[in-house]
Amino acid sequence: MDLKDKSIDDLLRQLNQKEGKSKDEKVVYGVYDSNKQSAWVKANDFLVDRSRISLREKSYFFHLTAVMLDAGVPILKTLQVLKNKVESPHFKRVVNTLAYDVEHGKKLSDAMSKFPSVFDDAEVGVVKSGESIGNMSQLLFKLSKQLESSYRLYLKVKGAMIYPITVFIALIFAMWIVLTFIIPKIQDFFTESGVELPWLTLAVLRLSNFVSTYWWLMAIVVLFLFAAWSFYVNTKFGRVRWDRFKLNMPIFGELIRKSILSRLLRLLSVLVNAGLPINKTLEILAGASGNALYAMKLRDVQDEVENGEKVSESMATAPFLFPETVTQMLQIGEQSAGLGKSSDKVADHYETEVEHAVKNMTTILEPVVIVIVGLAVAVVALAILGPIFSLSDIVA
Length: 396
What we know:
This protein is mostly helical. The protein folds into two domains: 8-119, Receptor-associated Protein, CATH 1.20.81; 147-396, Up-down Bundle (Receptor-associated Protein). Helices cover 78% and strands 1% of the residues. It has 17 helices and two strands. It has helices at 8-23, 39-48, 55-70, 75-82, 89-103, 108-112, 121-133, 136-193, 199-213, 215-233, 236-248, 252-273, 278-288, 292-306, 311-315, 324-335, 339-395, and strands at 27-28, 31-32. It starts with 7 loop residues before the first helix and ends with a helix.
């Protein structure tokens, strides 16, 4: 998805061919007048509006917007072109609404603020700053880079987790097949043979009987536990406890902390370079952290900065969340009036750290997963083969 095959003039020519039709259509919240739509279209719109818009697509949108603004294309024409270039039906409707609102006198930042589930406070803040200062294209290039960086980071972490999760799901499914279908078929054979069954075989047989008989109860319990857990982690107390647990997890905790730091520091650089006041920047960072502990600390930092303390000094009181590497670099940036540049450099450092952490985690998890799978297979094999070997000895 780039502009190599189409120039700005091509995009504008494409827009002019469609302008006549679009002017006659009334847009309401990203769609054509809903009163004229069938129930089926309304239902489809309901589902479309709840689909997820990826970081990569937003990065692409901001990059194209920056390219066209940098080429001197007005913001309205830019949005009218881009509403036909984005791929996601949901995002297409959002951009359609942005173009409609801007055409009717709204600022782009105000139009974006109507979609908090699509554009977060940081993105709206950068655009608002660009509108005030007049360097919109440069800020959008930086915002696009930050989103693309976050997306790459997300893919690396996701890729590292796919292997162990897939193996564990396959293991659970295989064990369910064995306990539900295979073990019951050989249970009668063991009973009729008269062989004294080892404790391991008895345990597996009892577990098989329980799973075969009460599978529905197990399903209810799992659903109940999942619902209870979802409710708990959505409470303020539960969210703090759960986020603290994630940060302290063996292997994964370090990776999560470094991922959060990389994202926050990159965003700090973008917002500071956009000219946002540091207290507003910290408020946005708290909302964008995605972790209750980081959010609480960043709000404390915001309060302390408003009372005259430096960002680095306030962050240094929580070394578990903000290591010395972070606070020292930020301190240098504060002293040299280059906080944005310093935070960008330390963000690069933590992105590299995340890459190394992902590789290390994969290296550690692979043998652990193999051992767990091997133990599960060994238990089932011993439970089944033990009585068979005993029967062979009796026959011999």
